[in-house]
Amino acid sequence: MISTIEWKNGKVRIIDQTKLPERLVYIDCADIETLWNAIKELQVRGAPAIGIAACLGVILGIKNSKAKKFSSFLKELREVINYLASSRPTAVNLFWGLRRCAASP
Question: In angstroms, rounded to a whole number, what is the distance separating the alpha carbons of residues 76 and 82?
């Protein structure tokens, strides 16, 4: 089975949709900037994949947080979410995923 998007070895691996159908090319996003660009440049396509990319992007953005207090962590989380939201401001599923990541339990 071919996955459109997955978490693999601490990175977000996506199929570069701009290369299809001629070639199957993967992009390994090790940082939030690479993922932001993949969303912006339409390398991630399809509403569900965009929502999942956003959620996995949040993990990329905060996984190395050095915050000692919850308030500091929450500030970092909001910055990551806002940054990812700027990648494609009209993508409904992007915002759905980001809102889910920001929601309190």
Answer: 10
Q: How many residues does the chain have?
A: 105
pLDDT of 104 over the 70 cut: no
Helix (H) or strand (E) holding 50: helix 47-62
Residue pair 26/13 in contact (Cβ under 8 Å)? The answer is yes
Residue 26 has pLDDT above 90, yes or no: yes
Domains of the chain: 5-102 (1.20.120.420)
The pTM (predicted TM-score) of the whole model is 0.88
Question: Can you tell me the mean pLDDT for 87-100?
Answer: 84
Angle, CA 42 vertex, CA 75 and CA 26 arms, to 5°: 95
Contacts 24+ apart (CB under 8 A), 34-41: 35/60, 35/84, 36/83, 36/84, 36/86, 36/87, 37/87, 38/14, 39/84, 39/87, 39/88, 39/91, 39/94, 40/87, 40/88
